[in-house]
Amino acid sequence: MWIRGVMTGSGKICLLTGASHGLGLALAQELVARGYQVLGTGRRPHAELPADFPDCAYLPVDLTQADAAPRIAAWCARQVAGPLPLAILNAGAGRYRPLSDETAAEMAEVLQINFDANVQLAQALHPKLQGGTLGLIGSVAHKGAAGMPVYAASKGALDGFGRALAEEWRGTVRVRVLHPGPVATGMSERAGRPRDMIDSLFLSPRAVAMTLLDRLNSTRGPDRQVVSFAQVGGHMLWRKLAGGAGR
Prior knowledge:
Blueprint: E1 13-16, H1 22-33, E2 37-42, E3 57-60, H2 68-79, E4 86-89, H3 104-125, E5 133-137, H4 149-168, E6 174-180, H5 186-190, H6 195-201, H7 205-217, E7 224-227
Parallel strand pairs: 1-2, 1-4, 2-3, 4-5, 5-6, 6-7
GO cellular component, one term: membrane
Pfam family, one: adh_short
GO molecular function, one term: oxidoreductase activity
């Protein structure tokens, strides 16, 4: 499960947050399948990583902690000799509930993980990312989704941040903001979505991971993109799902 020592060589090295489950796990698996050396982070301790966790370095870290960004940046600097070619900030949190049911602590957690931590990480990683690519994983819910206003707001903020950063860092670091549609992850199950709906209508994490990596590695297309059903072989069903679903 471990890549030991300092990573050097091919330029196929990626830092990935939220790597221990859901879309992040699928991204880690696909990155390794494509020959990347991966530095993954996640909330789960080593002992609780899934059996299919790929062969990569892993740092357990809670993005709600004030020292998370500098810890990750310092770990990355120790692990990678030279510039970091790719960083994918994928970690996210959210709940399907109306604003009236949210608590102050829950709202703060979602905003910290989905927005604040990404801003802090981008800042901390900037020197290491020179000449590389920063991928910010948002959600199509950034457009606004009833029943999940705090989650939608956090992704909307991330979208605006990514757009600004793409201009600010143009010519030094390539920034791409990618917004996947509904993905069949634990978040959808916790929201009470029927299993048959998730299986038949939501995007598979692996299919989304493949598409996201294709977009991140491509020099074509805009810096801000929505990954829809049609683009991973399904159908454009987002508007038909009341309240929508993030990842």
